[in-house]
Design a protein that fits this description.
The chain contains five helices and no strands. By secondary structure, it is mostly helical. The chain has one domain: Orthogonal Bundle (DNA polymerase, domain 1). The mean pLDDT is 93.
């Protein structure tokens, strides 16, 4: 399984809104990001849906600087039409 395929699978979530945000970042930004951001995105994908929901929708801020940075990048990405 390729790296992108593995990440696409990990973006699958029980909450459609989470999945759309994660896949949007993966599809439009991930490959252009630095290795540090890519590593932090992988760490983000390892979190539970509830934690992701808190980070992306409920203004919770991660104590991990890399994850907090990726969350801000995801929140600020342009929405697809």
């Amino acid at each position: 399984m390729s790296e992108v395929s593995r990440l696409q699978w990990q973006c699958r979530r029980s909450m459609l809104e989470l999945e759309l945000l994660l896949r949007g970042f993966l599809d439009s930004c991930y490959e252009q990001e630095s290795e540090a951001v890519q590593v932090a995105f992988n760490e983000l994908l390892a979190l539970s849906d509830q934690t992701l929901q808190d980070l992306l929708f409920n203004e919770t801020i991660s104590e991990e600087a890399g994850i907090a940075d990726v969350v801000e990048r995801i929140k600020n990405q342009p929405l697809s039409p």
